[in-house]
Design goal:
Elements (H helix, E strand, L loop, with lengths): L2 E3 L4 E4 L3 E9 L6 E9 L11 E2 L11 E3 L3 E3 L2 E9 L9 E9 L7 E9 L9 E4 L9 E10 L2 E11 L2 H8 L6 H15 L99 E2 L2 E2 L17
Parallel strand pairs: 1-11
Antiparallel strand pairs: 2-13, 3-8, 3-10, 4-5, 4-9, 6-8, 7-8, 9-12, 10-11, 12-13, 14-15
Length: about 325
């Protein structure tokens, strides 16, 4: 019996190994879709980068989770992941089943769905089917569903959670360290391998030449012609610079000649400045004072009242 799953619903699984098949309808303008799986621990993160199974690492080191080649079926194209649930280590608590688009968003992918089969029984009828629809139209990676432990068994839940950051953003959200250069190179190599003819459900080789290839091969880059050189901007015309004629400046007057002045007469020490020179007048000689004379051991000074000239007569 097939369970038609709604987003968020779950269903118990009795199978020991399951095969999750992504299916979509190809066509012009429809991007290619790749399936991947992440093995998570109880903390919801991968234990190491080896727990990421995708086109560049299609097989887990344990061999219990593996990605198969793409196939063309009457319903469209498929990409498949198988998991041996009963043999997984107890440290693996969850297996996330995801899809990523190449070159465009999932709103261009038509009829995307995931079908879950019992890998041990080989039954043609799926156990569960979930129609995956993008919510915003900007998703480039989607978690389609998850297998998780419940007691001693396993369950499948329909998720439908999208990521606008592609497979790299989805993987890093679960603890994967992704080198973008290696991821791009590995993606191209893996898609080349998936583009080869693969056997269909009846064992015959699929006719890939009758339909559009699943991966667009980029055309070699064309060297764009160099842009023409930009002509230099025209310079403004130069103004006619005529030589200036020096205008003679008026002659400066010659320096003044000092007019000699008449020599002024010399003046005496006590003479006053007058218009006419004056001659210094000599004053009359002052009378000489009499000399002192010694007479008989005594000094006599002064003038004598006798004598016509007022001098004391000298003694004979």
């Amino acid at each position: 019996m097939t369970h038609a799953m709604l987003k968020g619903s779950n269903v118990p699984l009795d199978a020991a190994a399951v095969r999750a098949v992504l299916c979509w309808t190809p066509g012009p303008g429809v991007p290619d879709v790749d399936a991947s799986a992440l093995l998570l621990g109880t903390d919801g993160r991968v234990r190491s980068d080896e727990d990421f199974v995708f086109y560049n690492q299609p097989r887990h080191p344990s061999g219990l989770v593996r990605r198969l080649s793409k196939k063309r079926v009457p319903e469209g194209l498929t990409d498949t992941v198988e998991a041996d649930l009963a043999a997984l280590d107890r440290s693996v608590d969850q297996v996330v089943l995801a899809a990523s688009s190449d070159g465009d968003t999932f709103d261009r992918v038509r009829d995307l769905r995931i079908l879950l089969y019992d890998a041990g029984s080989g039954a043609a009828e799926p156990l569960a089917v979930f129609e995956v629809r993008p919510e915003t139209g900007e998703e480039t990676a989607i978690i389609c569903g998850e297998l998780y432990r419940r007691g001693e068994g396993w369950k499948f839940r329909a998720v439908g959670q999208g990521y606008p950051t592609g497979l790299i953003g989805l993987a890093t959200a679960f603890g994967i360290s992704v080198d973008e250069a290696e991821e791009a190179g590995g993606a191209e190599e893996a898609r080349r391998t998936d583009g080869e003819a693969a056997p269909d459900a009846h064992g015959a080789a699929a006719d890939t030449s009758a339909s559009a290839p699943t991966t667009a091969i980029p055309a070699p880059p064309v060297n764009a012609p160099a842009p023409p050189p930009v002509p230099p901007s025209p310079r403004p015309p130069r103004r006619d610079r005529r030589p200036r004629t020096a205008t003679p400046s008026p002659a400066r007057p010659s320096p003044r000649t000092a007019t000699p002045t008449a020599a002024r007469p010399s003046r005496g020490r006590h003479s006053r400045a007058t218009d006419s020179p004056r001659t210094a007048t000599r004053s009359p000689p002052r009378p000489q004072r009499p000399r002192r004379t010694r007479t008989s051991g005594c000094r006599r000074w002064g003038r004598s009242s006798s004598g016509p000239d007022g001098l004391r007569p000298s003694r004979p």
